[in-house]
Each structure stands twice: as C-alpha cells, then as structure tokens.
Amino acid sequence: MAINSNSFGLSRLGDNVFTGAYAQSYPYSYSAGLSTELGAFGLLDDWLKRDRFVFVGWSGLLLFPTAYLALGGWFTGTTFVSSWYSHGLASSYLEGCNFLTAAVSSPANSMGHSLLLLWGPEAQGDFARWCQLGGLWTFVAFHGSFALIGFCLRQFEIARLVGIRPYNAIAFSGPISIFVSVFLIYPLGQASWFFAPSFGVAAIFRFLLFLQGFHNWTLNPFHMMGVAGILGGALLCAIHGATVENTLFQDGDAADTFRAFTPTQSEETYSMVTANRFWSQIFGVAFSNKRWLHFFMLFVPVTGLWTSAFGMVGLALNLRAYDFVSQELRAAEDPEFETFYTKNILLNEGIRAWMAAQDQPHENFIFPEEVLPRGNAL
Questions:
Q1: Total domains in the fold of the chain
Q2: 183 is in an annotated binding site
Q3: Has residue 16 been placed in a domain?
Q4: Domain containing 174: what range?
Q5: Which of 180-183's residues contact partners 24+ apart within 8 Å by CB, and which partners?
Q6: Residue 285 resides in a domain
Q7: Which of 122, 205, 249, 290 has the most CB within a 10 Å radius?
C-alpha cells in the first residue's frame, strides 16, 4: 500500500525552510501537503525525519543506543564494580568512593588489547567475571566513541535538513579526536588498555600525572598548542560576550541598557560599528565583520583540540617532548646550577619512582632509596 509523506499529519524537519532558488538544493524543503509515494525505505526515512520534540534521524539510530549503553555502563561500574582485580583499588560507591573518586577502571595489564567481549574467552559469559576483568571499560570506551560519532553525524544531518552549513559538526570533530586519541589510540600504542585513563574524575587526574612523569607532556609542543587553543578560545568567548553586552543599545522604553532587550526577540540590539571602534582604540585593529570574527572563535579552540590529539598519538608511539640535554649535563656537573627545566626533570623522575609501584602493583616494583632522585637543592 502506498503511503503519502504527510499521512501522519506531521511535518518533516526542513519543511518550508526555503523558498526560491535555495529550495531546489534541499530535497526536504517541499511544502506541506505535497503527496509523495513512499516505499518501505522511504517510509522509514520519512518517520525518522519527522519534526518532533527530540529529533531522531538516521544518526539517532547510532547515537541513542550507544549513548544509552555507554552511560548505563558508566553508572553501573561507578556504583557497583570494584577495581581490586585490575588495579588493586576501590572504585565504586558500594566500596565507599564518592563522585570524584569513583571510576570505571581500565582492564588489567595482563588482558593486553583484548576487546574483552562478555562472550569472549576471558569472561566466557560470566557477567561478574567480566566486570572484574575490566570489561565495562572497553564497553564504555567503544560505545562512547560511537556515541560521539553519532552526535557529530546528528549535527551534520540536522544542518543538512534545515539548510545551514555543517560547521557545528566540524567543530565537534575536536572533542571526538581528543576522546579517540586519549582513550583508544594511546593505550593501543602502549602495552595494554591498562594504560588508558579510567572513566572517573580522580582517575583522569592520575592519568595526567602519568603523562607528565613518563612523557614530560607539559613540555610537548602539541600540548602547548592545545593549551593556547583552549585558553585562547575561552578568552575570545569572554571578550566576545562582554563586547556584545557592552554595545547593547536601547530598543524600547527601558531606563537602562540592562532592560534594552528581551531574551526572545529576533531583532539585533547591539552595534557592530561601536564594537569595532572600541577595539580599534584598544589594540589598533579590530574584526571588520562578524563572519571573520566567529570563524576565528571556531578555528582557535578546534585547532587546539586537534593539535593536542596529534600530540597524544605521538605519546602512543613514545615520541619525546623537548629536552635540553646541555642544561641536564651542566646541572649534573655543577652543584650550584639548576633551572626550572632540570627541576622538572627531577620531579618527573620522582613521579616515576614513587608512582610506578602504586600505579602498577602487578609489576612488584621495589626501588631502593639510593636510586630515588635528589636535586642539587636537596
């Protein structure tokens, strides 16, 4: 039986968005009431793209199940599952942890890079054993990865339907690149999933200390570019918001600029010309148009995220950060010479020496006192 596209009495996202020349470019911009014969695939396509409170779309078939499972796995792990068998730690609310210290911990080092499927040779269908081995971590990591990709595709799909450019999806590629490089690529380059970050607040702090101690991450140029991008993006966001608020002009009978507009009005109520004059006086230069300004606000943080992701891929391969060997050699020979760089190198040695035994209990590390680092100032 043929079903027309509006037999449900609902509109599709994208209906009546465009008129004129642009309407030909978007297949979903037909006017309401136009009857179109649909097959089974067309019927599914039509249902998925209905304009409803929570849009589904084709991307939703990937996003909603994977996001649900990833979040469900994380809540289950942080509530009930111990990390005693993988890290020698308590990591759940059941064991006394709080929101900041609970985590879904990465699998034991002996598991290597196994996917740790519930029905695999490690767990053999035993759910409790699967949790003890760290199966929830791979479950959350991979479902989370696909959920992020699904959310990116959702932004792309909706942008296509309403007829705007896909820059939101492009911007969201930054967080995706960070997640994939940190949680998947880095441990794949190391010995096992064990060296990936566990999913928890304090667990991420532990991972940051590990990156500093074992990779000198803060002196890595890709980390520096990432910091510049993220903090630069925050600065640009603050400056932009303040400037727009500063240049609001009165658009009614209100007595002051705080009452000069209503949050839901569509009209613009700030002056780009005044903002341009202000920043021209501050710096001597200013953005000449809104498109260039907003592209810059997009470019800076997204580039920072991508450069950090490139740096993490380098760490997966154990590529080194900057090192200034001449300073290290002089500090070794001259008891009165120490720089912030050589001090940080000693601190990294301390992190490795004191952290390794606690962080990797399966290795049974024992460091005698004489090998622990001592700086020239000690």
A1: 1
A2: no
A3: no
A4: 51-250+268-360
A5: 180/145, 180/309, 181/308, 181/309, 181/310, 181/312, 181/313, 181/316, 182/309, 182/312, 183/141, 183/144, 183/145
A6: yes
A7: 122
**How many other CB atoms are found less than 10 A from the CB of residue 138?**
24
294 among annotated binding-site residues: yes
Q: 113 among the known binding-site residues?
A: no
Residue 249 annotated as binding site: no
State the CB neighbour count (10 A cutoff) for residue 95: 15
pTM of the model: 0.83
Does 298 fall in a domain?
yes
| Cβ count within 10 A of residue 34 | 10
Of residues 164 and 20, more confidently modeled:
164
Distances (CA, A) of 319 to 186, 294, 315: 12, 35, 5
Tell me the pLDDT tens digit for each residue of 233-247.
999 999 999 888 787
Burial (CB count <10 Å: 0-12, 13-18, 19+), residue 37: exposed
Q: What's the rounded Cα separation, in Å, for the pair 115 and 118?
A: 9
CA torsion through residues 79, 84, 85, 86, sign: positive
At 258 the pLDDT is 55
Q: In this structure, what CATH number is given to the domain that contains residue 181?
A: 1.20.85.10
Tell me if 215 is assigned to a ligand binding site: no
Q: What is the pLDDT of residues 94-120, one digit of tens each?
A: 999 999 999 999 999 999 999 999 999
